[in-house]
Design goal:
62% helix, two-stranded antiparallel sheet, 18 helices, mainly alpha, 616 residues, single chain, 4 strands
Length: 616
């Protein structure tokens, strides 16, 4: 076996040396104590707060991210269900919670949602689902818990920075939630916070939105630096870059996207705060008239500048959402087809190219801003090019299924569903990447259908797959298969009932962001009926999350107890105890082969783990 890069060995060996010394000292000090107990003895003195709240253990932090992200996903989903009631049954009181609002409620008098409240729910639904839900779960949760285990590291490179990244995220989330309770309510300018509306709108909600975004962005920057350093420096002996699991590659590229794309938006957020609080005009043009009165500001700013700064982050952000999902799906497909991932190196190069290209397509969100035809042609071309690596990744995963003896486990059902759902999301995005059809489709429900097929039936199904797949590693117990399959089939059907009709509405010309669905427009007359169908799908989807919640918490205590490798998988995390103790591994892991050595001809069993030598 070739000698591994010394850069990756040095820090890792030093960390393992410290953990080994601690274990030896424990064993020498406490006579008759079992090895696993000795392994953790030095850390039993940690109190509840340091062990479970202000922890520096990457596994605890990953679980903190995951649980917090799931709670925010539930809250953001609840906001959407209220919006869907308003669109399906315009002007009727909201059921169940409508009675909580009195006649003088500034949010929903007598339970009937106000237009400005609908705008508030729309802005906060998008913000919460993307920045407080999916990204923290996909990157903070799965990245923190799984990635160090998959590379054989005892922890992250900077454990205290890791803890700080979670708590900065938590503070950002609290600020976002607090904005609902200030006079005027939460932000009402869309999740994109377009100027000049976001600058001139009254109330403290928009200001708190900007403060919250600064904290959330800072959290992502701290986390991305930590991830990049950990993957480069703390890989196990023998784990070359081309032996890393595809999930680790996905997190690696995602970290670079966060590191490079978020700073412009953080700067833009500070500038918009200055416009709101300090009287500057970074995004306010001269001669702006509001309600018949000239706005008393210096002017000279450019609202389009905000769009450029926002979308320079927000298009890479789409790949921040999708790349970890692709990594999860790749792991589960390889494990349940009992075959290597088809075209592993091609997948890796595609993910890297995807990350690079994501920085030069942002203005396809801005074809309607009056950009010249030359620059429009450039962004149309780059948008068509970026679809190529996505198609390669999807095709490689479909080809991995060919000729396989597929195990239809609960994680595999979610992973398989991801493939066509992401395919629909990607294909419907192509017309939006070309300026001529985008003129007609821009700001219609077609855009909502496209984006949500990528991140809801796509990414969120993949995240559920990851929860079912790695739950045994985190808890030592498996989740119930029957409840898991009820959760899958119900969610899969409902998600399509919700989002497929949006393409019909969008192609028919129905605009989004209309609190009554656009009843005053004649061309919407035959399209409004779909809002009732979509609403029914959304509320039923909520009911199908109940089996997941029951399964999640019941399995922690009563789930089937499993050994360290219940799925008979090949990657490094399955060599650690379930759940892993402090330092993760009982001995320093060594990698002997690639990540997906399944069904090797002549092998004694149908999987050859990375951590087992040829002699074993």
């Amino acid at each position: 076996m070739r000698r591994h890069d010394s850069l990756a060995l040095g820090p890792l060996r030093r960390l393992y040396l410290l953990h080994t010394i601690a274990r030896i000292m424990d064993k020498a000090t406490v006579d008759g104590v079992a090895h696993g107990h000795a392994h953790d003895h030095a850390h039993e003195e940690l109190g509840f707060w340091r062990k479970y709240v202000f922890s520096v253990d990457h596994k605890v932090i990953g679980i903190q991210y995951a649980v917090t992200g799931l709670l925010f996903l539930l809250f953001g989903f609840t906001l959407m269900m209220i919006m869907r009631w308003q669109l399906a049954y315009n002007g009727r009181p909201i059921p169940i919670i409508g009675g909580l609002f009195g006649e003088n409620s500034p949010f929903a008098p007598n339970g009937i949602l106000l237009p400005e409240s609908y705008n508030m729910l729309g802005a906060m639904h998008g913000t919460i689902m993307v920045f407080l839900g999916v990204v923290p779960l996909a990157v903070g949760g799965f990245g923190n818990f799984v990635m160090p285990l998959q590379i054989g590291a005892p922890d992250m490179a900077f454990p205290k920075l890791n803890m700080m990244s979670y708590w900065v995220y938590f503070i950002g989330g609290v600020i976002m939630l607090a904005s609902f309770f200030v006079p005027g309510g939460a932000a009402q300018s869309g999740w994109t916070s377009y100027a000049p509306l976001s600058v001139i709108v009254k109330g403290g909600g928009q200001t708190l939105w900007l403060f919250g975004m600064v904290f959330l962005i800072t959290s992502s920057l701290l986390g991305s630096v930590n991830f990049i350093t950990t993957i480069i420096q703390l890989r196990a002996r023998g784990l070359s870059f081309m032996r890393m699991p595809f999930f680790v590659w996905a997190q690696f590229v995602t970290s670079f996207l966060l590191l490079l794309a978020f700073p412009p938006l953080e700067a833009a957020g500070v500038l918009q705060l200055m416009d709101r609080l300090a009287g500057t005009s970074f995004f306010l043009p001269s001669g702006l008239v509001v309600s018949g009165n000239a706005l008393p500001v210096s002017g000279g700013g450019n609202p389009i500048l905000w769009q450029h700064l926002f979308w320079f982050l927000a298009h890479p952000e789409v790949y921040v959402l999708i790349l970890p999902a692709m990594g999860i799906v790749g792991e589960i497909i390889a494990n349940n087809t009992r075959k290597p991932l088809w075209g592993y190196k091609t997948l890796v190069y595609s993910v890297i190219f995807l990350g690079f290209m994501s920085f030069i397509v942002w203005a396809h969100h801005m074809f309607m801003t009056g950009m010249g035809t030359s620059i429009s042609a450039f962004f149309q071309t780059t948008t068509m090019i970026i679809s190529i690596p996505s198609v390669i990744i999807l095709t490689a995963m479909f080809l991995s299924l060919w000729g396989a003896s597929i195990r239809f486990t609960t994680p595999m059902l979610f992973a398989l569903a991801f493939l066509p759902m992401f395919g629909i999301g990607g294909l419907t995005g192509l017309p939006l990447g070309l300026a001529p059809p985008d003129i007609h489709l821009h700001d219609t429900y077609y855009v909502i259908g496209h984006f949500h097929y990528v991140v809801a039936p796509g990414t969120i199904l993949a995240l559920f797959a990851g929860i079912y797949y790695w739950f045994p590693k985190a808890t030592g117990r498996k989740m119930n298969d029957l409840l898991g399959q009820i959760h899958f089939w119900g969610s899969f059907v409902c998600l399509n009932i919700i989002f497929m009709p949006m393409f019909i509405q969008g192609l028919g010309g129905m605009n989004r962001r209309l609190y009554d669905g656009g009843v005053q427009y004649a061309h919407n007359a035959g399209l409004l009926q779909w809002n009732v169908v979509i609403g029914m799908g959304a509320w039923t989807l909520g009911l199908f999350q109940i089996p997941f919640v029951i399964n999640f918490f019941m399995s922690m205590k009563w789930g089937t107890v499993v050994d360290r490798n219940p799925w008979e998988a090949t990657t490094l995390e399955w060599s650690a105890p379930s759940p892993p103790g402090h330092g993760n591994f009982l001995t320093e892991p060594v990698v002997y082969r690639g990540p997906y050595e399944y069904s090797v001809p002549g092998a004694a069993k149908d999987f050859s783990p990375q951590f087992e030598s040829e002699k074993a």
